[in-house]
Amino acid sequence: MNNQLQINITTLINLFIIPGVINAVSASSLIIDDRTSGTYRSNLGTEWQLITDQVMGGISKGELTLDNYKSRNCLRLRGDVTTENNGGFVQIALPLSEQDDFDATDYRGVELEVAGNNESYNIHIRTSGLWFPWQSYRFIFQATTEWKIQRFPFAKIKPYKTNKRFQQHRLMRIGLVGIGRDFQADLCVASVKLYKK
User: Burial code of 119-153, b = ≥16 C-beta within 10 A, e = fewer?
Assistant: First the structure.
């Protein structure tokens, strides 16, 4: 086989076959963040940020770092959560779009791969239909010391301080939160996805 023919065959494989495989794999899920960036940037191009109750006068302290826990690259949220001064949360939050609402209509829920310190944490999802910063739609999960994949179907999401129906086509932000009690938060996140099946 001459070199030109071999190059053309390789090009065809790369253009058609490999993308087909990738599309088949990703058809059942959308990777929001798999920690391949090596930065605070997600696969969507948006960046994770740390938010604590200090924005409303609380005194909880937290930090967001890039880490490696049990051979997995991860984001790590650590913090001292205290309910003093009407506070009580530390959070890492990711905008799902730079501009418009994020349409998750085609997906059934959120999938996390997480580990932690055997404490319970929240997922808070905000939509563009919510007006006040304390409103959200929530799940609760336990972060064990071993890596675990957990799924949270949108059909079971709980509204918090809102009567508005959850609208999957109007997502704005997802947050992972240590909240509501005095404790030491330590949560590692290796991946965040939306799943179909």
Answer: bebbbbbbbeebeeeebbbbbebebeeebeeeebe
Domain housing 165: 29-195
* pTM attached to this predicted model: 0.84
Taking phi over 0 as left and psi of -120 to 50 as alpha, with beta for the rest, 11 belongs to: alpha
List the CATH number of the domain containing 167. Answer: 2.60.120.430
For residue 41, is it within any domain?
A: yes
What total of structural domains would you count in the chain?
1
Q: Mean pLDDT for each consecutive 10-residue tract of the chain (197 residues)? A: 41 36 57 97 97 94 98 98 95 93 97 98 97 96 98 98 97 98 98 95
For 51, residues 6+ apart whose C-beta sits below 8 A from its C-beta are 90, 91, 92, 93, 175
